[in-house]
Design goal:
This protein is mostly helical. It is built from 17 helices and no strands. The chain folds into two domains: 413 residues, MFS general substrate transporter like domains (Growth Hormone, Chain: A); 51 residues. Helices cover 79% and strands 0% of the residues. The protein is globular and about 60 Å long. It starts with 5 loop residues before the first helix and ends in a 16-residue tail after the last helix.
Length: 487
């Protein structure tokens, strides 16, 4: 891709951020609409979990495939297809006659979404080649998540309260159409010099692993962990994991090169992404149900209550990007783990729901932590990696974010299943939710510990040693290609 001037680079960044905006808005708006959808569709808590996890599971499964396809066929081309598919999926979601159709159309949305954010991030990393400028661009990218978190609950609340929950999916269509027009006009095409081959067996094994594990976690509270169906799903997940590891170790161009995990920063970034986004997904899920089903707030008022958390994310995401560019990822990760863990502790040990002031304090603290955590994840994943492997490393970090969201909703929803049933009292809901808050606090503690362990001298040394594994051997197909397909 030819070098672009600063104005054009910023325009490309803005266009790519539009794709992130519609996907992020879709998630935050959807959370506010969950209680209305639950009542109209007569769905259980597990049904609401599936409206979220059907999307994130498909997205996580297809990110790597979309990235490699974009490398081969052209990043702009795949990005355009993603915009069209996501917009059509959004329109169909608004017309869904029942829960099953809604879940199916959410899966179609996810097919389009898998071609948007990771490919857009690849376009950004190929547009902003200077490391400090790239870190700042990623900070802006993270700031868009904050914007969607701030605007989404309010927009969703207004739409749900005035028009109905189906209108939340309409927002994506005009934004998607505008992004489509601007992409055609301003975003240049780019491809990898030697794109990786598709790994269909690896893709199927990843789908089987994520799908069976998530299904087991969501449905276990109703069916029982010892039921034959749940035990069979757990067995499928274990077999899929073993087969995936064995197959990928032998493949010339694996979906994920397992040697990456010799790098402590890479392994840490993967685990941090899972913990951070599991916390976010669980936080939004439990608070949406609490504010509307227990406190009795309208969708709009519930959205307004969430603004302190979203606003802090909006403020601290770009600051985190600047910190990463100036001082590296260590400090933002340590602060992120501290704040996210402290928020979970406020709710788990000090009953932050008891007063509105303490509730808002918990929201503010969590928002600061999440705003700080996103930018350093990608930076940590690629630390010390050779440039030819940076894209693959960032792609795995991005996939880990989606896996974290799926697991967060599945686990928190499973914990809540008893207390969040129809007719549960506020005391029952809070009692059921306390273990969920301890899980969120534990995720924060894990981020703090992993951030400390995987950003020091020893960790960077393991990254350099890992890089040498790729540099000291002859190129093996995808191992030595310039791959930045999905981040």
């Amino acid at each position: 891709m030819a070098e672009l001037n600063r104005r054009r680079r910023l325009l490309v960044l803005a266009i790519c951020c539009m794709s992130l905006l519609i996907v992020s808005l879709d998630n935050t708006v959807l959370n506010v609409a969950l209680p209305s959808m639950q009542h109209e569709l007569g769905a259980s808590v597990s049904g609401m979990q599936w409206t979220i996890d059907a999307y994130t599971l498909v997205l996580a499964s297809l990110l790597m495939l979309s990235g490699s396809t974009a490398d081969r066929l052209g990043r702009r081309r795949i990005f355009l297809v993603g915009l069209v598919v996501f917009s059509i999926g959004s329109l169909l979601c608004s017309l869904a006659p029942g829960l099953e159709w809604l879940v199916a159309f959410r899966m179609l949305q996810a097919v389009g979404g898998s071609m948007l954010n990771p490919v857009a991030m690849s376009i950004i990393t190929n547009t902003f080649t200077e490391p400090r400028e790239r870190a700042r661009a990623i900070g802006v990218w993270g700031g868009v998540v904050g914007i969607s978190m701030a605007a989404g609950p309010v927009i969703g609340g207004l739409l749900v309260q005035s028009v109905g929950w189906r209108s939340i999916f309409w927002v994506n269509v005009p934004i998607g159409a505008l992004a489509l027009f601007l992409t055609l006009r301003y975003v240049p095409e780019s491809r990898a010099p030697k794109p990786r081959r598709v790994d269909p067996v690896g893709q199927l094994l990843v789908m089987a692993l994520l799908g069976s594990l998530t299904y087991a976690i969501i449905e276990a509270p109703g069916a029982g962990w010892a039921s034959p169906g749940i035990l069979a799903l757990v067995l499928v997940a274990l077999v899929s994991l073993g087969a995936l590891v064995g197959y990928e170790r032998r493949r010339r161009e694996p979906l994920v090169d397992l040697r990456f995990f010799h790098s402590a920063p890479f392994s840490g970034a993967t685990a941090i992404a899972v913990c951070a986004f599991a916390s976010l997904a669980g936080f939004l899920f439990i608070n949406t149900l609490y504010l509307q089903n227990v406190r009795g707030l309208s969708a709009l008022d519930a959205g307004l209550y969430m603004i302190p958390m979203a606003g802090m994310s909006l403020i601290f995401a770009p600051l985190s990007g600047r910190l990463v560019g100036a001082r590296g990822p260590r400090l933002p990760l340590l602060l992120a783990g501290t704040f996210m863990g402290a928020s979970g502790l406020l709710f788990a040990a000090f009953d932050a729901q008891a007063t509105t002031a303490l509730l808002f304090t918990g929201y503010v603290v969590f928002g600061i932590g999440f705003g700080l955590v996103n930018a350093p994840i990608t930076n940590t994943a690629v630390s010390g990696m050779p440039r030819t492997q940076a894209g693959v490393a960032a792609a795995v970090a991005s996939t880990s974010r989606q896996v974290g969201q799926s697991l967060g909703v599945a686990v928190i929803g499973a914990v809540l299943a008893g207390g969040a049933r129809a007719g549960a009292t506020g005391e029952e809901f809070l009692a059921a939710g306390r273990p969920a808050w301890w899980i969120i606090a534990g995720c924060g503690a894990a981020i703090l510990l992993l951030g400390a362990l995987t950003t020091g001298r020893w960790a960077l040394g393991t990254a350099r040693n890992t890089a040498e594994l790729f540099e000291d051997e002859p190129p093996r197909g995808g191992h030595a290609t310039a791959r930045t397909g999905a981040q």
